[in-house]
Amino acid sequence: MPRLEDAEQTLLSSGSNLKQRTRNAWDSFSDFALRDNVLEVAVGLILAAAFTTVTTSFVSDILLPPISLLPFFARNLEEKFAVLKPGPNYHSHSPNGGKGEGYNTPKQAKEDGAVVMNYG
């Protein structure tokens, strides 16, 4: 059976060993993180996120409102969609009160089981 001094010595040595391994892992990580390539990628991702937000805001707040005023576009551009594969009740849904074919909204088409592509 090990003596108390031996157990204490084992604990002390394992504690200093753990400290050294942690320091080595941190040094390795900091060497990796501070390389030029990693910093360039991080800056690039931040710039891309900012550019995406600016572009989305420009298109939705500045560009689309005047385009929606043009007479050959529908007023609600968010509801534009194309039916790729009609559902089983495609002929009964009609914008003309039953005298044609089609769906009024993308939600109506999806509920009927149609495959739609939203482009608005």
List the helices and strands and how they pair.
Blueprint: H1 4-33, H2 36-68, E1 81-85, H3 106-111, E2 115-118
Give a concise summary.
This protein has about 120 residues and is mainly alpha-helical. It contains 3 helices and 2 strands. Strands 1-2 form a two-stranded antiparallel sheet.
Describe the structure.
The protein is mainly alpha-helical and 120 residues long. 57% of the residues lie in helices and 8% in strands. It has helices spanning 4-33, 36-68, 106-111, and strands at 81-85, 115-118. Strands 1-2 form a two-stranded antiparallel ribbon. It is elongated, with a radius of gyration of 32 Å. The N and C termini lie far apart (78 Å). The mean pLDDT is 78.
Oligomeric form of this entry? single chain
Distance between the termini: 78 Å
* Uncertain stretches: none
Q: Total strand count, please?
A: 2
For the sheet with most strands, the description reads: 2 strands, antiparallel
Helix tally equals: 3
Q: Spell the H/E element sequence.
A: HHEHE
Principal-axis shape: elongated
Taking all Cα atoms into account, the compactness measure Rg is: 32 Å
Q: What strand order characterises the main sheet?
A: 1-2
